[in-house]
C-alpha cells in the first residue's frame, strides 16, 4: 500500500519556510530522520517513508509519503500520526537540530555541484522570487532556525487535525483511517 498524508505548508516568501524545511528533514528526510528510524528501522512497518513539501506564490504543501505492506496500514498511519504529534508537543533536541541543519546544508551544497540544479536555482530565483538568493543566504537562514521556531511552526502547520489522508491499496473501507484522523 501507499499513503500520502498532506497538510498546509507555506508560501515561498513566508519567513517560516526555512523552519518547515528543517522540520521536514527532522521528520522524514534521510536515514537518520524520525520517520525512517521508527517506521522502517525499529518497527519494520514501511519499506519507504519520507516527507515532502512545495512552496507556491500564495500557499504551500507539506506531508508524508509511505510505502508499506497493506496488512500494516493501520500501524503505519498510527505511527506517522504519533511522530507528528511528538514534534507538536516537544522541542527538537539540540543535537538532532544540529544534525538536521548539517544534513540540509550538505544537501544544498551537493546540489550546487549539478549544472541542472544550479540552472533551476537561478531560473526559480529570477522568475518566481523578488531576487536570486545566494547559497550563503539560504545557509544563514537555516542556521538561524531555533528549536522554538520548529515547535511554533509544527503547532501552526504539522498537526493531525489539519491533515488529509490518501491511501492506495486493497482496503475495503475508509472508516478505520477516518477514525484515526478524527482522534
Could you give the topology of this structure?
Layout: E1 2-8, H1 17-28, H2 34-42, E2 46-55, E3 60-68, H3 73-89, H4 94-111, H5 115-128, H6 135-144, H7 147-157, E4 164-168, H8 175-182
Antiparallel strand pairs: 1-3, 1-4, 2-3
Helix pairs in contact: 1-4, 1-7, 2-3, 3-7, 3-8, 4-6
The H/E string reads: EHHEEHHHHHEH
What best-fitting shape do the alpha-carbon axes yield?
globular
| Assembly category | single chain
Largest sheet: 4 strands, antiparallel
Residue runs with pLDDT of under 50 for 5 or more positions: none
Structural class: alpha+beta
- Radius of gyration, taken over Cα atoms and rounded to an integer in Å: 17 Å
Strand residue content: 15-25%
- State the distance separating the first and last CA atoms: 22 Å
Q: Reading side by side through the largest sheet, how are the strands ordered?
A: 2-3-1-4
Mean of residue pLDDT? 92
Task: Note the total helix count.
Answer: 8
Give the number of DSSP strands: 4
The percentage helix is: 40-55%
